[in-house]
Amino acid sequence: MSRNCGTSERQRVLVLMGGWSAEREVSLSSGTEVARALIECGYRVDTLDVTRDVGRLMGALSPKPDVVFNALHGKGGEDGTIQGLLDLLEIPYTHSGVLASALAMDKPAAKQAFVAAGLRCPEGVVVPREVLLRGDVMARPYVVKPPAEGSSVGVRIVREHDNAQAFDADNWKFGAEVLVERYIPGREITVAVLGEPTGPRALGALEIKPHGGFYDYTAKYTDGQASHLMPAPLEPEVYDEALRIAETAHRELGCRGVSRADLRYDDTEGEAGTLYLLELNTQPGMTPLSLVPEIAAAAGLSFPKLVSWMVEHAAWGA
Fold first, then answer.
1. pLDDT beyond 60 at 182
2. Domains of the chain, with CATH numbers?
3. Between 233 and 153, whose confidence is greater?
4. Is 123 annotated in the active site?
5. 23 given a catalytic annotation
């Protein structure tokens, strides 16, 4: 099969997927789609459902593949852990390196970097779980989320008329601390960025309109739960500002490869709205319902060409 998606001397790609995080099923879907596209592009592709069995992982990495495509999501795959191992073995891999991956996964740490760079983020505080059990730590409405999870896992909105004890402690499985942020009303905007050698380049901004209110885990990965408007129907200056914010966030964390910035556009008081950066995803989903492939396609970059670009720009180290 001819390589029609790019040119490279690298032939063998190992796709890592699965893992043990709360996003395991999403990762399996991403990895399956990526492997299929890379085969279409002419690469020799192996896949591995990653577990905590390090010996099995090392066996899959010997002999060394030319590139690892990291399709893992969440803890263990997106937080710098697997990146450190691949750095140690000097195997090029897709997406960001150790530091950028760890920073982006740690939402409070990432927010500090964003604010220092002049980017607007929702006000927030990290509190012990027990503190939130005693009552509100800021005025409602606010958002409760794990400090280090992705795909809206564990996220919920506490609204004005919710019951007095709105924090669902019994179903909280995300550690001893909770990130509480001011709820930003308005519209859900996401921007895909390519980390090119000349600097980060935003491919476009998309608006998400969930059919059930909040764009939670179910809405993200269930067909028919949300509408995607591409390009996002924003005023030109607002659209350009969303792209600039995403590029700045990518640059400030030191990301490489592909990233996706999630923003809220609060235009509830009129047209002169305000953009807020919520978070940056260093390993955005590659499933059939994922946002980055949709944005890339609108920019003229097919899914096989996108994943081939990611392989061609794989690296190891910082």
1. yes
2. 12-95 (3.40.50.20), 104-121+185-301 (3.30.470.20), 124-182 (3.30.1490)
3. 233
4. no
5. yes
